[in-house]
Amino acid sequence: xxxxxxxxxxxxxxxxxxxxxxxxxxxxxxxxxxxxxxxxxxxxxxxxxxxxxxxxxxxxxxxxxxxxxxxxxxxxxxxxxxxxxxxxxxxxxxxxxxxxxxxxxxxxxxxxxxxxxxxxxxxxxxxxxxxxxxxxxxxxxxxxxxxxxxxxxxxxxxxxxxxxxxxxxxxxxxxxxxxxxxxxxxxxxxxxxxxxxxxxxxxxxxxxxxxxxxxxxxxxxxxxxxxxxxxxxxxxxxxxxxxxxxxxxxxxxxxxxxxxxxxxxxxxxxxxxxxxxxxxxxxxxxxxxxxxxxxxxxxxxxxxxxxxxxxxxxxxxxxxxxxxxxxxxxxxxxxxxxxxxxxxxxxxxxxxxxxxxxxxxxxxxxxxxxxxxxxxxxxxxxx
Length: 383
Known about the structure:
Elements: E1 2-9, E2 29-34, E3 40-44, H1 57-69, E4 78-80, H2 83-89, E5 103-105, H3 106-114, H4 119-130, H5 133-146, H6 169-182, H7 184-187, E6 194-197, E7 205-208, E8 220-228, E9 232-241, E10 244-253, H8 256-273, E11 274-280, E12 285-292, E13 298-302, E14 307-312, E15 319-327, E16 329-330, E17 338-346, E18 349-358, H9 367-380
Parallel strand pairs: 12-16
Antiparallel strand pairs: 1-15, 2-3, 2-10, 4-5, 6-7, 8-9, 9-10, 11-14, 12-13, 13-18, 15-17, 17-18
Helix pairs in contact: 1-3, 2-4, 3-4, 4-5
């Protein structure tokens, strides 16, 4: 038996501009992530506490999406609007303009939250699901902990003024990625540019999505704006461009115009300075591994997750993939058994390690066949 090492060089498929050494954006705090690889391409004070404002509504939507996905809630279910929810529509905050006693479908409330940024719709949904907004906020914080948002506390469903409704741009990024990955059938609402609510006792109200990037040609399809007077302007955004998805979150932009301009600058930086390299798809054959004393001489190995790496365009040739195993692997081999290791090396540094699993069972040959194979191995070194 001996150790086999195979090195695969991932070659560059694209060429572009090099990254800028002193890149920065005009925001108090910001972060940029490549969605597929999960790698952080830029961050600025990303763990600083912020008031997430209406970006809070992403989690409000996620709680509903969970229930929809589990079959505990339907888009056609209707909730009755309380006076508590209606008051917010009269208080000067962004609103869906619902009325006390209205029976509104979950789908319309979600559109009112996501597209119109209606604070009143948030309370109506929260009360319909949990009874009170306070109980709903507990569900939000519990979900935040579950998905890895370690520095977040939600105290309401809308993000309006509250000293203990706190997060970070890193946590908002984690939440945004979770949303996109787990609820593709509902994430579509975040790219809709307008919503018309046929309100009670008045003409229909058509409101546009407040996300400025949806109206640009960058490929944006979400996610959510925010504003509080002491936090200033914020934005969680995502673009999907030619199979490449980036997520950016920034807070403390000085104006609406700055929010739009600087967010585009950040996303463009990620597109022009980095490339995404796909190493393998989940559950697809990756490489044949030699087998000893098996009814087959080799077995296909696979990885049970997608493997991507994001690298600077100037340094693509430094990316290598190495398969290591003590082989040949002796039969019997069970399906899904670990038989090798995939190591991803970038600029001589290990940046990823993954188990390679057997794609099927390999049975051991009978005694006579084992004897013949052993003799061949001793004489010829042939497995």
